[in-house]
Amino acid sequence: MGAGVALFGCGTAVFNRATVRRLSAGTNTVIEPVAVCIPARDEAQRLPELIDDLRGQLGVPRLRVLILDDASSDGTEAAALEAIADDARFAVFRSEAEPAPGWTGKAAACARLAELADATVLIFLDADVRLAPNAIAAATAELRRSRVALLSPWPYQVAESVAEALVQPLLCWSWAASLPIAAANRSLRPSTAVACGQFLVFDAAAYRVIGGHAAVAASPTEDLDIARALRRSGRRTALVAAGRAASTRMYRDATELEAGYTRWLWSAYGARTIGGAAVGAAAALAYWVPPLAAIAGRGSVRTVGFIGYGAAVASRLLARTLERGTATRTDALAALAHPISIAAYLRLWSRSRHAHRTNALTWKARPIASTR
To answer: Is 148:202 a contact under the CB 8 Å cutoff?
Structure first.
């Protein structure tokens, strides 16, 4: 049975590898006004690189970039102003206020930026995203071509440390091996929405109709929940692969990675523990039992074990190449260690659940209320 689940995941990954749309690598020119909104809290080291990338964007003559320094303590505002120099398209704002009750810091910062923006397209970027010169124009053009309310360009997830290589590719793999995206992009079912908050492109009118980030003020996964809110309102959302136009290194080491996943992973399968436990049991069945059977089994049991393990490794590599088109030697080694990745992921989920139950969730020196 476990091998069957792994084979299903591999088949889904093959389908997605062949059918998921990618941002155009060609030159696009966007005439309408585009506002890029960047919430930044303690991002003095990462933000200047993103600003450099945005200053070099092509094909967006009516580009405006709004940056909110969200009560940073590391000189984020000064670093941003230095990187901007005299570029009049950029504006930096600083807020000293803490989020209102019932709001996460990121949702509050995004809502404030949206209030300041005057454009028909709103793009939200995390400070650790890196962009090719055509990224903003390509994403805006794809939003209009697709006729959706929200486009989520999936960035390439850079993974350099061992911990990152084991865990970060699971983000793409989790949907690439379970959900046919071509069908999901045509659906209005909230349960099939996929979105990545690192790079979100909204039709501004649709964003405002649902209340913007106020609709997901308390959500630890505001990206997924705002996509679901749009679908519930009858508006489509879509995911595209954007690894050749955008990349990000979310976490720089195991400590950052653990803190980041602890913040939100408890909510990945709903607030009830049973949902995560069921997913964990299915993951163990599909990705631990086959390699164990391959090692310890005999005859047909061993053969089926090798097939299941091979399917898991293949699905992992297919998902990785879906992000940017190629896989590295590190990606191959991490795929071979897929059972260890699943163990690491389940450990992070358990840690996050515990922090949620004990009201110990924090992010960037702010407590996170357990609202679910």
So the answer is: no
